[in-house]
Specification:
Layout: H1 2-34
């Protein structure tokens, strides 16, 4: 139903944010290590 769709999209959004943060961290960590 609508609630299931809302919770699924919410979980997907949360997962995408977590992945995005991981990618940002992976991008910046080498700069900290080598700087």
């Amino acid at each position: 139903g609508l609630q299931e769709q809302a919770s699924t999209s919410g979980m997907t959004l949360t997962a995408e944010i977590k992945v995005g943060k991981c990618r940002i961290i992976e991008f910046f960590i080498p700069r900290y290590i080598w700087s």
